[in-house]
Amino acid sequence: MCGIAGIRRFDGTPVSQELLAEMAKRLHHRGPDDSGFWADGPIGFAHTRLSIIDLAGSPQPMAGASGTTQIAFNGEILNYRQLRSGLTYPFRTNGDTEVLLALYEQHGPSAVTELRGQFAYAIHDARTGETHLFRDRLGILPLYYYADAKMFAFASEIKALLPAIGAAEVDQESLHDYLAHRSVPAPHTLVRGVRKVPQGHHLVVSASGEVRTEAYWELPRESEIRKVTPEEAVRLVDEALTASVRDALVADVPVGAYLSGGVDSSLITALVARERGDAELHTFSAGFGDPRVDEVHHAEKVAGIVGSRHHNVTVTADDFRDSWAKLSWHRDAPLSEPADVAVFRLAELARRDVKVVLSGEGSDELFGGYPKYRFALPTRLAGAAPSFALKRLEKALPASKARLGIALRALAEPSYAERMRGWFAPFTVSERAELLGGPATRSVLAPYENGRGDAVRRMLYADSHTWLADNLLERGDRMSMAASLELRPPFLDHRVAELAFSLPSSVKVRGGTTKWVVKEVARQHLPADIVDRPKSGFKVPLDAWFRDGLRDMAYDLLTGPTSFVGKTFDRAAVRALLDDHSSGDRNEQPRIWTLLSLEVWHQTLSW
C-alpha cells in the first residue's frame, strides 16, 4: 500500500516540488519505505511507498515507455503477472505499477476492467492533456479530490490536500450524513469542497479543467440472479473465496491474518493455512479484558486448529484516551466506531511480524450477516406501524436491551430509506433535525429505495455502497496504514462480490439464519461449534467506560466552553445524554461516541 497525491493548475502556474513534498510528508505513514516526485509545469505527482511487490524496483511516480504518461499508484494488482504475459511492452521493472502503465498505453482507460485487486491510481496522459483517476470496485482504497476554477488536486487522504487548498471548513450539510451514518457517504466529506471518488468510478480532468466521473463497474442487477440450489451456492462461494485467498497471498513480504474467532476471519484463516501448507502463519486478535465482549479464547482455539502462531493484544480505556486524537488525524474524520482504536492496536501488533494481513471484512454486507437482515421485510413495510408507540417503547427499555432498542428506533423512522439506515444511525431523523436546526436537504440513500429486488437485496445493496465503503473500509485502510500495514479483504475480491449479488437472498438469510451460505462454506473447513456460536462482532465495552474511566473526558470535551459540539448543537441536550448514561438509566454510548468523535476530530484538523 502507498500514498499518492497530485495537483494540476489551470492558469499555467508551475507546481513546485516543495508543495508536492509537503503533501507527501502527510502521507509518510502510508509509505515509509520510499518517496518520489514528478513535476512538469502546471502538473505534478507525489508518491510514498510501502514496498510489497518488486521491493528493489518500481519507483514512483513512474513514466511510461512512450514518454507521454505518468502514474502514481496505490494498491496491489493481484493478477499483474497474468496481465503482463499478454502484453508486448518494453518492461523495465518486475512490479505491477508498470503493468498498469502498459495496459493504459495499449488499451486506454477501459483497461481498468481487467484488474483484480485493490487500487487507487492517477495517470496523466500528455497526448490528450487528460488526467485520469481510478478507484477500485468496492472502495477498498481511498481517493479524495478538490476542484475549483484554478486547480485540481487529489490525494489518498484529506490531510494531504490541505497544503494545496489552504484553510478548511466543516461542510454543514455533511453533518446530517455523519449523524445518520457515523461517516459521510461518497462523494461527500465533512470538509467543504473535498470529495471522494466513489467506489468503482473513473474520474477525468480535461485540459480545460472540466471534471467528470463515470462508473466502470456495478454489482449485478436483479435480472442477473442465478437459479441455483443451496448446495450449488455453497460450492460456488467456496470456490470463489478459495481463489480470492490464493490471489491475496501474492506478495514479496510476510503475510498474516486477523483472527477474531468469528466465522469470517476464522474461515479466511483456515483457507490461508490450507494454501500455505507447512509455511509459518502468524495470526492476530484483540481483547478488552472484559469477558462480556472478549473473543480471544475463540481465536486461540481456531489458531490451534489451523496451527498458526497466534498473538493477542489487550485494549484498555487508556488506549482510547491516549490515541483518540492521533487516530482522528490519521482517519481525517471522526472515529466512527469504537473498534477503530482496537483495529489500530491490532495493526500495531501485526506489523511487528508481517507487512500484509488478510481480514474477513465485507462478508456481512455481501452475504447478509447482521441481525437486521432478518428484519429486512418489516423494515420495508413498517411505515404503517404507529411510530409514536415504537418510540415510547424504546425510551422505556432498560440499558440491557440495547439491541431491541436499536430495532425499535429503526422501525419507527418515517421513510424506507431512514428505516434502512436507522439500524446503524446513532440519531434518528427527528433528532438530527433538532440538533442541527432543520432537516437535511439531500438523501444519500434515495437511490437504493426502489428497483433493486427483494427487501434483503435492497438492504445489502445500500449497505455495500455506504456502511461498507465509507465506514468499515475507510476504518480498515486508515487504521492499518497508521501502522504502515497493508490490509487485504478476500471477501471483497470483485468476483466474490459479483457472485454474492447473483445469488438469491434465500441462501443468505435462510430459516432465520443470517449469512447461511458463508456458514455452510465454513462448516467444510472448521468445527461446528466455531461456525454455530452466536455472532459477537468487534465490541468495545464503552458503556461501562463512559460511566467510569472516560466519564470526565466526555463531559469536558462535549460541554466545555470551547467545544465545537457545544457551539454547533444544543448544549443542554448533549449534557442530558451524558447524565442519562451516567445514571445507568439508559445506554447512550452510541450517541456519546458519535459526538465525542466529532469533537476530537475537529480539534485535530488544521483549520
Overview of the molecule:
The protein folds into 4 domains: 3-215, Aminohydrolase, N-terminal nucleophile (Ntn) domain (Glutamine Phosphoribosylpyrophosphate, subunit 1, domain 1); 222-368 and 467-532, HUPs (Rossmann fold); 371-422 and 425-455, no CATH class; 541-606, no CATH class. Helices cover 42% and strands 15% of the residues. The protein has 26 helices and 17 strands. The strands form 3 sheets. It has a 6-stranded antiparallel beta sheet with strand order 2-3-1-9-8-10, with helices on one face. The protein has a 6-stranded antiparallel beta sheet with strand order 4-5-6-7-11-12, covered by helices on one side. A 5-stranded parallel beta sheet has the order 15-14-13-16-17, with helices on both faces. Helix 5 (172-181) packs antiparallel against helix 16 (429-436) and helix 10 (339-351) crosses helix 18 (467-481). One of its GO terms (biological process) is asparagine biosynthetic process. It holds the Pfam family GATase_7.
